[in-house]
Write a structure and sequence with these properties.
The chain is mainly α. It has eight helices and no strands. Helix 1 packs antiparallel against helix 4 and helix 1 packs antiparallel against helix 6.
């Protein structure tokens, strides 16, 4: 079964946002203490609009992607939820790769080619959040 169009758009946006998050993540073979701390720092940044804004200001590519998120979500509340979802997906990505930056980047590249395949990689809880958020975004756009 394919992804619904809104879910596909949300997954594509997530992959773009995650590509930027992995650009500054240190490689690791497992989730050792430094990797766990790095993951926690990225999650805090994604979920805090002020910290996210500061990080975006320092990266023109990230700022360009961030400008597309409100167009996708249609509201600031849903934009914040999008970044919560990004954190959940990033956690799944880090855990699924054992913190290996090369594997994370490969997963993201594959996700750009096959968003449905990438979505299948997500944990059930993250996939449910994706489904619910895409539904709320779709309802808002009708």
């Amino acid at each position: 079964m394919g992804l619904l169009p809104m879910r596909r758009r949300v997954v594509a946006g997530l992959i773009a946002a995650l590509s930027l998050a992995t650009a500054s993540t240190a490689p690791a073979q497992s989730l050792d203490a430094p990797s766990t701390e790095a993951l926690a720092a990225v999650l805090r940044m994604l979920e805090d609009p002020v910290a996210r804004g500061n990080a975006l200001a320092a990266n023109p590519d990230a700022a360009a992607i961030d400008r597309t998120v409100p167009a996708l979500t249609g509201s600031s509340a849903l934009t914040d939820e999008f970044y919560v979802l990004t954190g959940l997906v990033f956690t799944d990505l880090v855990q699924g790769s054992g913190g290996d930056l090369t594997r994370m980047r490969q997963s993201l590249a594959e996700g750009q080619r096959d968003p449905a395949g990438f979505a299948a990689f997500l944990s059930p809880a993250t996939l449910q959040y994706l489904h619910d958020l895409a539904g709320r975004i779709g309802d808002r756009k009708r």
